[in-house]
Amino acid sequence: MKKVFLLLLTIVTMSAQAQEFKAFPLVTVNGEGKVKVTPDQVTISVSVVSKGNKAVDVKKENDTKIDAVIKYIKKMSIAKEDYQTQRVYLNDEYDYEKKKHNYVATQTLTILLKDLSKYDELMEGLVETGINNINNVEFKSSKLEIHKSEARKLAVQNAKLKAADFVSGLGQKVGRAFTINDNSPIDYPQPRYAAMAMKMADSAFGSNETLAVGEIEVTANVSVSFILE
User: Fold this and answer.
1) CA distances (Å), origin 23, targets 19, 26, 44, 163, 183
2) N or C: which end of the chain has fewer CB within 10 A?
3) Looking at the predicted structure, is the pLDDT value of residue 158 above 70?
4) Could you tell me how far CA 116 lies from the centroid of its own chain?
């Protein structure tokens, strides 16, 4: 009797699962949403590079310049969590022809500037205190998560419009969404702009405009399957 009960239970369960997973007529489309934003922050990567014949002297010179740079960053009232040492190198570049050792010391700092109006002043001061290499400038938005949400909504709306276009000639309608897959790139990589017109030799920054902020684009991509009605 127990075996019969288990058999009946199995049949009922399989029948319920078959109903639950019955096939629906579907249309699957991709949707994209884009939000263009004026950035309000910038991340700046800069380095101090020192060269010489003695490793100790080269490292000492590099440390002295970095010390002056960090003190200037603090003077600009940039919060301590907004600047960080990224890399520290001391390399021996041996010249085989002259049979001579040359040493190169490099320290790289990344600075997050939340007030773009201070950009020119900051860059001028960094160069004056010892920075001799500007690696990268990357614009950002402090409201990135909000813009990501907007882009996702636009992507779903775009997918629904596409689905409606596909079925309009079939006399059918787009029903509720069956599946939604997020195909967006991780962290929504943003384009980088190195928009600086700096003359680091003998030109003072003065009132020159050396920053072109432009726009950044936040993109979301989705794949949506809609039930056809």
Assistant:
1) 9, 9, 54, 19, 24
2) N
3) yes
4) 18
Instruction: Look at the alpha carbons of 67, 72, 73, 79 in this order and tell me if their dihedral is positive or negative.
Output: positive
CB 174: neighbour CB atoms within 10 A? 22
What pLDDT is stored for residue 6 in this prediction?
A: 45
Average pLDDT over residues 171-182: 92
Torsion of the alpha carbons at 110, 114, 120 and 124, rounded to the nearest 10: -40
**For range 76-92, the mean pLDDT:** 95
Identify the CA nearest to 26 among candidates 166, 222, 181, 169: 166
Bridge partners (DSSP) of residue 132 are: none
pTM for the complete prediction? 0.70
Residue 213 pLDDT level (bands cut at 50, 70, 90): confident
What six digits make up the tokens of 24? 């629906």
Pinpoint the alpha helices (H) of the chain: 2-20, 55-75, 119-129, 144-167
